[in-house]
Backbone:
């Protein structure tokens, strides 16, 4: 039985580009040219879980979200504009 | 792929709108004569509701607001979450090149309102609000008349009202719309899991596009099998499209899904040879002449990187510059963002600026490289799909107009780069072609 890995996501509406996340967790987060975080792979390796939690706590905008994976979506995008 | 059986069936259909321009909006008496009475299942009639939901599922109806998500799946999702008190009928139609929902509400408001009553019943909503652009006085008036007729005829089955939404491209995005209705703030909010229903301030809402509801009204009357007598396998039914651009007869047309894209655009009578078509909306995709034979459906356009979206088709004649038009589109989308997310706030103006430079023929050595790099990093990083739409459009422009890109980049913009834009919204409302 494999444990469901923690996933790290950014709430882009809340994020103001403080950049603490990339500072604390460069393994998972890099910054774009305007200073906003890019998370290429949201899966947090077990070894980085503690750092990821610290990263979520440190964000002044509470924009770092840690979550368990969601069940798969049906085909299509629900409610675009 | 379009099958022979499909191609023997007519391209134009008259389910939601008549083919000829109606002299006046269809009033309740004429509406009932045309379509027959609507049986609205009582809210607690579980078996009847499940049967109707199943019918909508088997019809293959997908959302006509842009997402193309299966309607029955969306309804099931919200029912499983416990339903919603409020249904929002999305008729804001902020897409500048789209006029189908306005046309539908003007000429056939009762179909939309029937659909709203049916769906409200399915999700346990006691109230529905028709969301209109606050400047849209004609639709507000049409809605008032239609609601008055219904109250006089059969009393109020579901309380339906209107809500005036401030104008703006992203205000019709479903999270922005439900946010505005519940909190007064017309801004999208971030939903980490889109398989969960919209919820704000502990209130669930369901947002459905006006045209989608009109189709539901007909499926509730005639069933799934009837719905599928138009369209093709996997792309059943009819859909409204708004044709504009290099056309003699722009306007709103109702077509069966699955016919070749070129035939659909042909309804607008192109005035010159077409070099490309913008499919879906301003945040849609350009496709070249090679796609004109592709079936107009999600599956048919998919291989060309496009999707029907909200039914917008903008025909670009050969005497226009695709890059200049795309630069204008990008600048528009950059201005119309909600201003919340960094990648959108900074990324879209940056894309628009470089594309504008390319259009004018004063690109520098790094322009294309910057564009490519930014296109790769901006997508998927907004709270809503707005930046993704802009990226999709710009990417498709660089690929479809690649020969022009090479010339423009070399400092030789095409003679059409400074020609008047096709994007200026012409008078598009009203069923097209029947003149």
Residues:
């Amino acid at each position: 039985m494999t444990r469901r890995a923690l996933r790290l996501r950014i709430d882009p509406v809340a994020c103001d580009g403080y950049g603490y996340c990339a500072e604390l967790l460069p393994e998972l987060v890099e910054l774009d040219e305007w200073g906003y975080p890019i998370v290429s792979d949201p899966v947090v390796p077990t070894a980085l879980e503690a750092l990821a939690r610290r990263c979520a706590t440190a964000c002044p905008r509470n924009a770092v979200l840690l979550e368990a994976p969601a069940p798969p979506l049906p085909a299509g995008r629900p409610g675009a504009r | 792929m379009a099958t022979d059986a499909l191609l023997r069936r007519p391209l134009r259909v008259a389910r939601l709108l008549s083919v000829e321009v109606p002299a006046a909006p269809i009033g309740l008496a004429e509406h009932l004569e045309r379509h027959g009475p609507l049986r609205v299942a009582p809210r607690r009639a579980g078996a009847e509701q499940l049967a109707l939901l199943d019918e909508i599922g088997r019809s293959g109806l997908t959302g006509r607001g842009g997402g193309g998500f299966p309607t029955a799946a969306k309804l099931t999702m919200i029912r499983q979450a416990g339903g919603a008190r409020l249904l929002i009928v999305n008729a804001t139609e902020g897409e500048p090149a789209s006029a189908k929902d306005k046309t539908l509400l003007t000429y056939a408001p009762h179909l939309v309102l029937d659909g709203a009553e049916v769906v409200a019943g399915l999700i346990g909503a006691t109230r529905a609000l028709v969301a209109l652009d606050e400047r849209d006085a004609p639709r507000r008036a049409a809605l008032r008349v239609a609601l008055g007729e219904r109250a006089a005829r059969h009393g109020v089955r579901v309380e339906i009202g209107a809500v005036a939404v401030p104008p703006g491209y992203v205000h019709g995005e479903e999270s922005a719309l439900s946010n505005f209705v519940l909190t007064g703030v017309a801004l999208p909010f971030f939903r980490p899991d889109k398989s969960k229903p919209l919820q704000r301030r502990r209130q669930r809402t369901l947002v459905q596009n006006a045209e989608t509801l009109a189709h539901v009204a007909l499926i509730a009357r005639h069933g799934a099998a009837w719905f599928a007598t138009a369209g093709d396998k996997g792309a059943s039914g009819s859909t409204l499209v708004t044709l504009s651009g290099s056309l003699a007869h722009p306007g709103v047309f109702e077509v069966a899904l699955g016919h070749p894209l070129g035939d659909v655009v042909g309804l607008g009578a192109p005035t010159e040879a077409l070099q490309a078509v913008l499919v879906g909306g301003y945040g849609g995709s350009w496709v070249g002449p090679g796609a004109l034979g592709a079936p107009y459906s999600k599956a048919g356009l998919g291989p060309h990187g496009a999707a029907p979206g909200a039914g917008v088709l903008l025909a670009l004649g050969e005497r226009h510059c695709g890059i200049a038009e795309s630069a204008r589109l990008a600048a528009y989308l950059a201005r119309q963002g909600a201003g919340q997310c960094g990648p959108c706030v900074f990324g879209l103006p940056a894309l628009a600026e470089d594309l504008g430079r390319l259009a004018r023929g004063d690109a520098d050595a790094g322009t294309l490289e910057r564009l490519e790099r930014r296109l790769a990093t901006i997508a998927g990083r907004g709270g809503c799909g707005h930046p993704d739409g802009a990226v999709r459009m710009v990417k498709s422009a660089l690929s479809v107009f690649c020969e022009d890109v090479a010339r423009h980049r070399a400092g030789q913009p095409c003679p059409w780069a400074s020609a008047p834009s096709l994007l200026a919204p012409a008078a598009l409302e009203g069923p097209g072609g029947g003149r």
Q: What stands out?
A: The two ends of chain A are 40 Å apart (CA to CA). The beta strands of chain A are 7-10, 29-31, 37-39, 64-67. Chain A touches chain B through 27 residues (CB under 8 Å).
